[in-house]
Amino acid sequence: MCRSGYQEPLAEEVRAAAARQGRRGWAAEAGSGWVAVRGLPPGPLPAPLRAPLIFERQRLPMARWFPLVDTAATSEPLAAWLAERLAAGLARPDATWCLHAYAPETSVPGSLEAGARRLGMALLRALGERWPALGQRRRTPEAVAAAGSGWVAQACVVAGGVWAAAGALGSLSDRFPGGVHRMRPDPQAPSRSYLKIEEALELMGTPPLPRERVVDLGAAPGGWSYAFLKRGCRVLAVDNGPLKIRGLEELPGQLTHLREDGLTFRPDAEWVPVDWLAADMLIAPGAALGLIRRWLAGGWLRRFIVNIKLPQRHPLVALAPIQEHLRGVPGCRFRLRHLYHDRREVTLMGTAEPQPGAPRRPVHRRPHRTEPHRAPHPTARGSAPPGRPGPGAPARRAPTTRGPEPRGAPRNVRRRRGR
Description:
Elements: H1 7-21, E1 27-31, E2 34-38, H2 47-50, E3 64-67, H3 76-89, E4 97-102, H4 111-130, H5 132-136, H6 141-147, E5 151-158, E6 161-168, H7 193-204, E7 213-217, H8 223-230, E8 234-238, E9 254-258, E10 276-280, H9 285-297, E11 303-309, H10 315-327, E12 332-337, E13 345-352, H11 411-418
Helix pairs in contact: 3-4, 7-8, 9-10
């Protein structure tokens, strides 16, 4: 399953996986928000299909198709008929299970979502009435996801019918219904992009820790920086535009804003390797590849989250060089996913292990770097004792920003301070 409108790129991914395996029997049939892969060999999935694909939201292994004339009219007889077929896949003694009833995400919400909700309630009633023991072992999707094990009955309502399947939680590409990670909005966040970084962090499963070093390229207006500041990180926000983060003094993290171009920015020696590289810039995939290649080759990062904008046509062609390069980087593990909160973009997430002999310092240093208002703790990784510059560090000026500038400041003062 995928977001409606992205079924063709998803089908292309399946065909490319088949070509890498030398398989000619696979067939990818696409509909609005779904791709059916036929001709797979019995047993475990082939290696190219085991990990979730870029545009894949959820998968239904061994799914069955039930055509409908009107998908909005999910009647009780239909639910009873589907329950008969799903119950066999849930007949595991003492195994908990849950139901995922959903519809593919579309740009215009309509009757499919309402039909999926009605079908889900009717299915739960039918399964509980016909098989009481099965009803006693039912849990909520959140409980099964938190446990990390169990069985899942899926019913995906699409235009023209229902895809249904039952299987182990581990056979799915995501533990949530439809692969949707709907993050909770924060009224203090300065932009919608905050939801994207929160979803990426949830998928990575490694939360940022207090005092970790973060470089946020293309930071304005500050949604991604805000997410790290909330967690107590030290954030170096790089953007020529202004930040709109409110209540900076109340956040546990430390912020330094550098008005520079994120594409050409090079971190100071005492900051590398940074714990997190975050980048959300309006640049082409080729420019994003150059950015990633430079930071990995310099040994400047440990983890990275990079948002990549997609072209209007042939997105997989644009993303292929990035995947090819990262597969050849020793110690680099990455995932490229079209997240729920992404629009015409995908998110690259990964980790990089330091390699012996890799360069650890940037090529150039600039004398106008600034430090946060609060000096790093002397025991923090890569930091110098308060009041003392790091090895070979030039003299430093006062910090540029630690919050919004005073109201009424002369215009020429604002411009001079921002440089």
